[in-house]
Structure formats: C-alpha cells, structure tokens
Design brief:
Shape: elongated
Structural class: mainly alpha
Number of strands: 0
Helix content: 55-70%
Number of helices: 5
Distance between the termini: 24 Å
Largest sheet: none
Order of helices and strands: HHHHH
C-alpha cells in the first residue's frame, strides 16, 4: 500500500509536542478542574487495550498491522465490528487523554487539525486502497461498519 503518511501515530505525537512547545511560547490560561488530570490518564491507558485487541485480531487473520504493508484480507471481527479504524480511534482517544492529562490547551486547539490530517491523509487513502484491492467485499463492510464510531 502506498500510504501518504508513513507513520500515522506520528501525527498526534507531533501535534502533542507542538502543543507543548506552543504552550511554553504562548501560554493559554485555562482553569483545568482536578478531574481532568485523572480522566486524561485513564484515556491515555485505555486505548492501548483496544490497540492490542486490534493487533491481535489482525495477526489471527494473518494480515499486516503496518498501514503501508500488503493487506491480505478484510478483517471484520473483534474491534473491527464496531469501527473500521479502531487503531486510529485509539490514537485520537490517547491524544485527548494526553491533552487532559498534561493539561495542554494548545493540544485541545489542535484536535480538529489532528483529526482532519488522520482522516484525509491516512484513512481516506487506505480506504481507496482497500476498495481497489477487495472491491465489493470491502464496500459491503464499509456500509455495515462506521468509519469512526
């Protein structure tokens, strides 16, 4: 597969680092309730379980985890019953968790650009590839299962 962005987890990681740097240069003063830190850390940890579930499901079906690899089958079980992109959903939940956990106001501001970058430069090209590779089988799956949640 010829993905446009070679390492999708880099998108939220770069945005979080940028948010931290912007916060040092141009602080945004927000009142963060105490619960946001705890909620944030829960949202940082929880996505790893979904990610591991998705990876295990891919491996059981003998297909690649790497979005640039050669996909051998459409996986429609496990977390892929609920969303076509459980790993990317996990990345976004982790991003929100880090935003709250580290109290990065700029990360909250960058959430929409992070989502749009994942959507247009990772998910859409992957879906084009899967439609070309698997045709009606992928199209039927895409009609049954939401792209995000």
């Amino acid at each position: 597969m010829n993905a446009r962005f070679p390492f999708p987890p880099g998108i939220p990681l770069i945005a979080l680092l940028l948010a931290w740097a912007l916060g040092k240069v141009w602080p945004v003063l927000l009142h963060w309730p105490a619960w946001t830190r705890w909620a944030g850390w829960c949202l940082v940890v929880a996505p790893f379980f979904v990610f591991l579930w998705a990876v295990a499901t891919f491996r059981r079906h003998h297909t690649v985890v790497n979005p640039r690899g050669e996909v051998t089958t459409i996986v429609t079980v496990g977390p892929f019953r609920y969303t076509r992109n459980p790993m990317y959903v996990s990345l976004l939940v982790l991003y929100v968790g880090a935003t709250l956990g580290f109290r990065l106001a700029w990360a909250a501001i960058l959430l929409v650009p992070v989502f749009l970058t994942l959507h247009y430069f990772v998910v859409i090209p992957e879906e084009r590839y899967l439609r070309a590779a698997f045709g009606e089988r992928y199209s039927a799956y895409a009609q049954r299962v939401r792209r995000w949640l």
